[in-house]
Amino acid sequence: MYELFIGTFVTFFVVIDPLGIAPIFAVMTEGASTRFRGRMIIKSVITGTIILLMFAFVGNGVLTSLGISMMAFKAAGGLLLLIIALEMVFEKRTERREKKSEGLVHEHEDNVEVHPDEEYDDISVFPMAIPFLAGPGSITSILLLMSTYEGNTQAQSVVLGAMLVTLLSTVFILFAASKIIDWLGQTVANAITRILGVLLSALAVQYIFDGIKGAFLS
């Protein structure tokens, strides 16, 4: 069971890749308060956990009943992720935050304080929970592992425990990444945003290619 736990933990750590999504989260919330970032982190991890647990127990039945293949899910997730990546590269998210900020100031002209966090979009569900935390890779992993040990309650409990430990470690990694971005400053953060946007777009296109390729080969 110890070997199963280690192997499962490594699997989820690789497919969720908290070290990879942490800088993306940090630049998407750059300038926001620690409280806002903390709320996004907790909400995204809780949402991702609920989704993965749902797929662990009823995932195969849900997808089958809806006639959705994992490859279609992967291609759709890649397409949505590509939109986010393009916004990061061309700083559309920054422009939208600025317009939103101007709108909020205009609405509260009577000396009513406007909280700066209101400028930021809620990214906890998309793209953080889906597809970063509960994406095609982690969903496929939990489906396969739970089906592999079907009927073995102890082994399935170990699989779920390893998944939860991975998500818990993700919380600490996301908090640490946010602090690092703060230390780097605005100019460096803007440069990192564009670089990560390009890398994220490549990842999104790979998701789309894999989904299309899998659909034709299946």
Q: Please trace the helix and strand order, writing H or E for each element.
A: HHHHHHHHH
Question: What's the N-to-C terminus distance?
Answer: 33 Å
Proportion of residues in β-strands = under 5%
Q: Mind summarizing the main beta sheet?
A: none
- Gross morphology: globular
Unreliable segments (pLDDT under 50, ≥5 consecutive)? 100-108
What Rg do the Cα atoms give?
19 Å
Number of domains in the coordinates? Answer: 1
Count of helical regions: 9
Residues in helices, as a percent range: over 70%
SS class = mainly alpha
> Mean pLDDT, nearest integer?
80
Strands, count: 0
Summarize the structure.
The protein has helices spanning 2-16, 18-28, 34-66, 70-89, 92-107, 124-133, 136-148, 153-184, 186-217. By secondary structure, the protein is an all-alpha fold.
Features:
single chain, 218 residues, mainly alpha, 83% helix, globular
Description:
By secondary structure, the chain is an all-alpha fold. It has one domain (2-217). The protein contains nine helices and no strands. α3 (34-66) packs across α7 (136-148). The longest helix has 33 residues, at 34-66. Mean pLDDT is 80; it is low at 100-108.
